[in-house]
Write a structure and sequence with these properties.
Blueprint (H helix, E strand, L loop, with lengths): L19 E4 L4 E12 L11 H6 L6 E6 L6 E6 L12 H19 L3 E6 L9 E4 L4 H11 L10 H6 L7 E6 L6 H9 L4 E7 L2 H4 L6 E6 L6 E6 L1 H23 L6 E3 L5 H11 L1
Parallel strand pairs: 4-5, 4-7, 7-8, 8-11
Antiparallel strand pairs: 2-3, 5-6, 9-10
Helix pairs in contact: 2-3
Length: 283
């Protein structure tokens, strides 16, 4: 695994968790994020007496410092394993998603956050997932399972059910997919994740964003719907191919922006520095 795939995430605002961690929290407790002063009578904790503030207090009260506690944030990856994620050579899109999951596990471990994996296509792929855990080596085990997985299901009908497992949770959720063929299911899934900070990770293969080189008759397989199609590759068709990819990207940007979300388009190989910048810009 290349070190260039490592990344760091930062969340905007404060989280409501209670377990100590690395993120800014809303709850008061032990910490360095100063909030206000209070009288020692109201907050009887002599360890936090602020002598300078007490000497300046016009009423002569002993004042203690109140701080917000830094907290951990649950992290979850929802990974699409439908047939279209099996596209790509020599590496499938699902293999790229596995690289991301391994890097995400290292990023979560570095700040003490628990990681959960949920995989789905037409059903929940529980055999590929894992409950929320801080277990050492979890990322590599999950990534190995994804790399060995078979992508056969023609659709992703379990997307909504998968998202509903996280409904109501305040978490950082990565939705990892090529986002092909999503309709009302995507809207329903995002509705279930309204309390979470959702990061759409768009996995596209270079073989689908760029037309094949050369000209002539070519045969293509539709992995989601099944069947074959024959196309005559010529300059006009290649131009329309690129225009369709650009239009799809704009459409996806618009759909997600309507919900205040900004997609991260993952390249091959996965570049962790680019994702770190994504979080810094968002924060």
């Amino acid at each position: 695994m290349s070190a260039t795939q490592d990344f760091h995430y930062r969340l905007p605002g404060r989280s409501g968790g209670w377990r100590p961690g690395a993120h800014a929290g809303r709850a008061m407790g032990s910490g360095e994020d100063f909030l206000a002063h209070a009288s020692l009578f109201a907050r009887p904790d002599p360890r936090r007496i602020d002598l300078r503030a007490s000497l300046r207090d016009p009423r002569g009260d002993w004042l203690v410092r109140l701080a917000r506690q830094r907290t951990s944030v649950p992290v979850a990856a929802l990974v699409d394993t439908s047939a279209s994620m099996g596209f790509g050579a020599p590496r499938r899109k699902l293999d790229l998603a596995a690289d991301f999951v391994a890097a995400l596990a290292r990023a979560a471990s570095a700040v003490g956050d628990p990681l959960e994996l949920l995989a789905f296509d037409e059903r929940l792929r529980d055999e590929l997932g894992a409950p929320s855990s801080r277990q050492a080596g979890l990322g590599e085990r999950l990534a190995a399972g994804l790399r060995a997985a078979v992508c056969e299901a023609p659709g992703h009908g379990a997307l909504r059910e998968t998202a509903e497992r996280l409904a109501g949770r305040e978490a950082l959720v990565f939705l990892v997919s090529d986002f092909h063929g999503y309709g009302a299911d995507l809207e329903a899934a995002l509705d279930a994740l309204t309390r979470a900070r959702v990061v759409p990770v768009v996995v596209w293969s270079g073989q689908e964003t760029e037309p094949p080189a050369g000209e002539g008759l070519a045969q293509f397989a539709d992995l989601e719907r099944g069947g074959l199609a024959e196309l005559w590759l010529r300059p006009r068709l290649k131009r329309r191919w690129r225009e369709a990819v650009a239009a799809r990207r704009v459409e996806l940007d618009r759909t997600l922006a309507a919900r205040g979300l900004r997609p991260f388009f993952m390249g091959d190989p996965f570049d962790g520095d680019t994702l770190t910048r994504y979080f810094l810009e968002g924060a």
